Fold this sequence. Notes:
With 201 residues, this protein is an alpha/beta fold. It has eight helices and six strands. The chain has a four-stranded mixed β-sheet, with helices on both faces. A two-stranded parallel sheet has the order 3-6. The chain is globular, with a radius of gyration of 16 Å. The two termini are 17 Å apart.
Amino acid sequence: SVAKQKFPRTTVIKETKRGPAAARNAGAKVARGEFLAFVDADCRVPEDWWQRVEKNFSGSPQLAMVNGPYRYFEAQSVRARLIYYVTNELTGRFAEFFYRRLLGRGVMAFGGDMVVRKTAFQRIRGFDEQFDFYGEDVDIANRLMREGEVRFNPEIWLYSSVRRLKQAGHLRMWFVYSFNGLAVGLFGKVLFKDKKYRPFR
Length: 201
């Protein structure tokens, strides 16, 4: 009701299958544009976000996907900002170097801040719904490399919430995301199952 009230042209879809991969695929099926932008429910998109995204695709017909890191809108102290900078931007930059430069495999993708060329998305049949949580973003980044360039760009940042990190533990969640991202990039599967995972929305 909130989406309909504030954005009358919004199409609201109900997806009963749990997990971000299924939800994103459901949205992609009804999307009509040339690009598919995947943003999570707890994200806030800066006004110039699309302009920054467009600069990446403009003049780069081989670019299949671009994604960027999160900045947390609750992070007020210098310490908090430093923690989130290290766990997002620096981790993303390191993964970009490790995966793409050294291994030629892909990138450490952030699924809640990702834009994909729709034709490339359709050719690889979207997100793999076997990934119920963790790794679906890294998996699609690796598969999109067959269709064109995959890019992590720190300039394509947006705001997200630290809700999950606070409730599950900052260090623990950083380890889970990083370890599983590495495992999916190298072996194509999640190796660390988080038994304590539960929806916070």
